[in-house]
Amino acid sequence: MPTTERQLLQNAFQEFSKASDSIINYYAVLENQIRELKKEVEEKNKELQRAGEYLYNLLNSLPVGVVVTNTTDVLFANKTARKLGSTEVLGRLNSGGQKSGELKNGGGYYRWKKESLESGFESKEVIVFEDVTEMERMKERVERDERLMAMGEMAARIAHEIKNPLGSMELFLSMLLDGKLKKKEKQYTNYILFGVKTVDRIINNILTYTRPKTLVLSEGTLSRVVRDTVDFMKVSAEARGIALKLDTHFDGPSHFDPDLMKLVLMNFISNAIEAISRPDGSIVIDVKEEAEHAVITIADNGVGMSEEVQKNIFNPFFTTKDKGVGLGLFIVYNIVKAHGGYVEAESVEGSGTSFSLYIPKDGP
Ligand SMILES: Nc1ncnc2c1ncn2[C@@H]1O[C@H](COP(=O)(O)OP(=O)(O)OP(=O)(O)O)[C@@H](O)[C@H]1O
Ligand SMILES: [Mg+2]
User: What is the pLDDT of residue 356?
Assistant: First the structure.
């Protein structure tokens, strides 16, 4: 090969090897850049995931319920929303053109508001709702207090007016019985006297317990009083095949009138016994502590109450029983009120009732 040609070939080889060196270099740079980018993407992904988790935890720790929907299905529901329950309830919030409202589910009350999501999330809506059960219960208690106070005052006034002529009637009837009466007349007079005495007993109950101003407060162990009453009532419960069980989780001291508290418990236990007609009847009484209250719960698996009955149970003379007077819960209410406490009732028709008494530990 002539020298010039060899020279040219050598040059060409040199050029080629230079070019391939720089390609290798470029490739290494590119590879580095890709590695960097990959790292960056991974980090961004992690950041995104962290932000997602953060948002998820934040939404789940909110005391309000948050639900995201696409107007037909629930896409997301935070922990509080899931606690509210069934998809059926969430679905109810989701349907209809309403933008806000109130909702009752089980024993709870909820207030809710619906907003469409901002741009980029069209056709998605967020529903926020809060649990206002405690507030609603408090409102109901205040309304009930006002109503029962008015009823109590009226009952007390009527009772007072009846008491005087009743006293005279009893006196004259006794005088009649002291005189010479035929057998039949004596029998009838005794019947009338029996009736008058019954009315007198009811009137005395009303006057004594409508506003028991005479609480004899002392520091004591509520669970002991509950245990004594349960032991006392056990005989009549068991005679009807009903198991009476006591659970105590609070044995600390509190302030209350032990005699009146016994009367309260006896009323609840009697009502529970009267409400049970099934063979596996049971009444569970529980004593526990909650912030500033001692709480006694009396739960039975009796007939339960309709909503209509529940609205009236504390009213004087409200009864659904043939031989009931309808004063038991009215008296209970007044005694608990005088202690500065309150009563809550929960009932499911056909499966049972539970009453909870909240008694301030430090007294009224
Ligand atoms: N544990 C319970 N289960 C079901 N219903 C109940 C229960 N406790 C009370 N009730 C309902 O509340 C009503 C009122 O009770 P309350 O104790 O005031 O009167 P009563 O038991 O009917 O008569 P009494 O004056 O003799 O006590 C009852 O008639 C009953 O309908
Ligand atoms: Mg009763």
Answer: 96
What pLDDT does 233 receive?
A: 94
The per-residue pLDDT for 117 is 77
Q: Where are the domains of the chain?
A: 1-61, 65-131, 138-209, 218-360
Strands (E), the chain: 65-69, 74-77, 100-105, 108-116, 125-131, 218-221, 243-248, 253-256, 282-290, 293-300, 342-348, 352-360
Cβ–ligand 1 distance for 363 under 6 Å, the answer no
**Low pLDDT (below 70) residues in the chain:** 1, 71, 85-97, 119-121, 211-213
Q: Which amino acid is at 83?
A: K
Smallest CA-to-CA distance from 353 within 247, 246, 244, 273 is with 273
Kind of pairing between the strands at 293-300 and 352-360: antiparallel
Find the radius of gyration of the CA atoms of the chain: 38
Starting from the CA of residue 355, give the closest ligand: 1
Ligand 1 atom closest to the Cα of residue 302 is 3
Specify the pLDDT at position 134: 86
Predicted confidence at residue 140, as pLDDT, reads 87
* Predicted structure pTM score: 0.71
Nearest CA to ligand 1 atom 26: 324
Q: What is the pLDDT of residue 213?
A: 67
Residues at Cβ < 5 Å from ligand 2 ion? 271, 328
Distance 322 CA to ligand 2 centre (A): 12
3-state secondary structure of 142: helix
**Of 329, 353, 357, best ligand 1 pocket probe by most atoms within 8 Å of the beta carbon:** 329
The CATH code for residues 218-360 is 3.30.565.10
What are the structure tokens assigned to 232, written together? 């006392």
CB of residue 318 inside a 6 A radius of ligand 1: yes
Beta carbon of 272 within 6 Å of any ligand 1 atom: yes
pLDDT score for 93:
65
Ligand 1 pocket, residue 176 CB under 6 Å: no
> What's the CATH number for 138-209?
1.10.287
